[in-house]
Automatic annotation (TrEMBL), chain A:
Residue positions of the active site: C103 (nucleophile), C200 (cysteine persulfide intermediate)
Record organism: Mobilitalea sibirica
tRNA-specific 2-thiouridylase MnmA-like central domain segment(s): 244-301
Protein name from the UniProt record: tRNA-specific 2-thiouridylase MnmA
Enzyme class: transferase
Family according to the record: Belongs to the MnmA/TRMU family.
Cysteine disulfide partners in this protein: C103-C200
Pfam families reported for this sequence: tRNA_Me_trans, tRNA_Me_trans_C, tRNA_Me_trans_M
GO biological process: tRNA wobble position uridine thiolation
From TrEMBL, chain B:
Active-site positions on this chain: C326
InterPro entries (UniProt xref): Aminotrans_V_dom, Aminotrans_V_PyrdxlP_BS, Cys_deSase_IscS, Cys_deSase_NifS_bac/arc, Cysteine_dSase, PyrdxlP-dep_Trfase, PyrdxlP-dep_Trfase_major, PyrdxlP-dep_Trfase_small
Localization per record: Cytoplasm
Binding partners and assembly: Homodimer. Forms a heterotetramer with IscU, interacts with other sulfur acceptors.
Molecular function (Gene Ontology), one example: metal ion binding
Domain of life where this protein originates: Bacteria
Function field: Master enzyme that delivers sulfur to a number of partners involved in Fe-S cluster assembly, tRNA modification or cofactor biosynthesis. Catalyzes the removal of elemental sulfur atoms from cysteine to produce alanine. Functions as a sulfur delivery protein for Fe-S cluster synthesis onto IscU, an Fe-S scaffold assembly protein, as well as other S acceptor proteins.
Annotated signal sequence range: none
Protein name stated in the entry: Cysteine desulfurase IscS
Gene Ontology biological process terms, A to Z: [2Fe-2S] cluster assembly; amino acid metabolic process
Annotated catalysed reactions: (sulfur carrier)-H + L-cysteine = (sulfur carrier)-SH + L-alanine
Amino acid sequence: MEKVVVGMSGGVDSSVAAYLLKEQGYDVIGVTMQIWQDEDICSMEENGGCCGLSAVEDARRVASALNIPYYVMNFKQEFKENVIDYFVAEYLQARTPNPCIACNRYVKWESLLKRSMDIGASYIATGHYASIEKLNNGRYAIKKSVTRAKDQTYALYNLTQFQLEHTLMPVGAYAKDEIRAMANQLQLPVANKPDSQEICFVSDNNYAGFISDYLNKEDDSLAGSVKTKNAKNIMNTTSLIKNQYNGLTPGNFINTAGEVIGQHRGLIHYTIGQRKGLNLAMGQPVFVLELRPETNEVVIGNSNEVFTDRLYANRLNFMAIEDIVDEITVEAKIRYSHKGARCRVKRTAEDEVLCIFEEPQRAITPGQAVVFYQDDYVVGGGTIMSKR
Amino acid sequence: MEKKIYLDNAATTRTRPEVVDAMLPYFTEKFGNPSSVYEFASQNKKAVDEARGTIAKALGADITEVYFTGGGTEADNWAIKATAEAYKAKGNHIITTKIEHHAVLHTCEYLEKNGYEVTYLDVDEYGIVKLDQLEKAIKPTTILITIMFANNEIGTIQPIKEIGEIAKRNKILFHTDAVQAFAQVDINVNDMGIDMLSASAHKLNGPKGIGFLYIKKGVKIRSLIHGGAQERQRRAGTENVPGVVGFGKAVEIAMATMEDRAKKEIELRDYLIKRVLAEVPYTRLNGDRVKRLPNNANFSFQFIEGESLLIMLDMNHICASSGSACTSGSLDPSHVLLAIGLPHEIAHGSLRLTLSEDNTVEEIDYTVEKIKEIVDKLRKMSPLYEDFTRKR
């Protein structure tokens, strides 16, 4: 019997995933990944999140009901290094990161898969509404779910071929209602969790507060004996920026003509396309167009200026195709909630592509992922670069 | 072998059948509340005091110095918080170590947040407190030294008598968390200069949910739990009579069998240590070779993840642990192993096996074979090991 480790959150989808795999004859092991950092878990508990302590309790109950072995695996270090450190470093470089993508690639897949294989599993499985197919060209690619009520493929574009080859997504073949019905019929003690779009380790969506707390803590821990390689990298990044401004240093709002039009509270408080909280009386709605860390300036413009028709992306990963040889036309999503837009993608350097949209897109944001689709398959994607 | 092999006796132990038998009547016919006036209940008061007497005798203490609690953690909390409160006119400084159980560490951290100053002493590479550092840490404001008797992870036994002498000489109260040591090794509170001592029944084949704090006469700490006048007005709440009776019975048996048991456990433990160190390369024993609890072995296997090792041992029906289990059941790198100077990656690959007199040589042989097999398999999949072998 092939062993499969199911990442369990205690929610409906991963619980039914475990059930389906057991029915299919796999030797199923339930695992919840512990990633939260703080001694004080109260704020995490309020947030819910997929990996909090309540997730552990919920998942344990489900595993017991399904009569499968269940373990909690500790990935705090991996999560801190690959997700939180990255998240902070990106913000400090005036980009807007998507930590879920990093978490999927490096923690949920790389680390969990490694440890699952360590204990003899051939696959890991999740409760994603998507499917993984082997294409005629021999490559594995993720395909959007049949239901498409909620696209879960955007945050998975960065998975490697090896990871895909060793992943099962059993609920992808069903609609959400069917999965819910199955859970009810089986009387699984599943938690009905709201689908959160907030970042699991930041409470109240207060990024700026999280980052400044985090940096203070890192200062302390660096003074002590705990050092991680990424913490050092971040400190290098921060000290670089700190030398001039630290992301929390107030600076100037400027318009596209370069004129100073007000004072901002520090770059980490802003993201591209933002309108609220600028406190600028300009007689028309104004938006953040660009963040300039080197001069600590926030560029402001009107609703037309926030639209652009092109972006450069790097840190590329390809899925349905091996590479872009010349140019391809795809449907591209520039953020999780984006509905997708047609664009041409051209290779411009070793690890860089240029995407030109048919229609200008609103608030193309450096640090976010651009994900390419053809016929509902994930072709690949990359990270949107800051202005070249 | 489908039978379970239980090697996690530092986490908890099997309640002895004799203990269960002693407890049962106190759930059924003898259910009275010891505080009631009628004759029917007074037998319960008597039973509680008999158990108290057994425990006092085991410590070389007076019967009036033993106070029952809801467990070892409560006893630690009580000793530390109540001392901090009662002696705050004298000072606000507490000395402890970096290798304490979280019941002590987190209590000290809590007090730090409330205006107290805490010194966390380093330990040497075997986990033993350095006495000269203890002396140096003492200030005029020091009101408490709290140092565990024996460590729950690596089994190291501290020089308690010497610590007691230092405390006495400096007129500072000395509390020891003896949860792992009580009824496993010889303890005499007077000879050792101990002012307060915490222990728990379930570590010595007694029931869970019952512990005690020994408070020397003259130590002026008050109640942590307020309510009725039980436990000489120092710990409110109706006595857990079955628990207390079970605790008494467990102590009675543990004290009577201590010598033979220790001998048997040490023999088995040394056999285990010898085989593992000889047959699994790149392995170290954590803790002191001699000054350690009779039943404790703690290893670090380089290049592997302890969590994977534990899960695979579980798949082979072997119950073991690494570090101390947290709420979720997942594992953090042990603060104890870090304190004895192990680097993070090695601390991660550690395994604690704690034996009981019920374990057999066959069980140890089977366990060693499984450890060899699993460690070898994990190393073959470990990028760290691959790097290491390539460099050689």
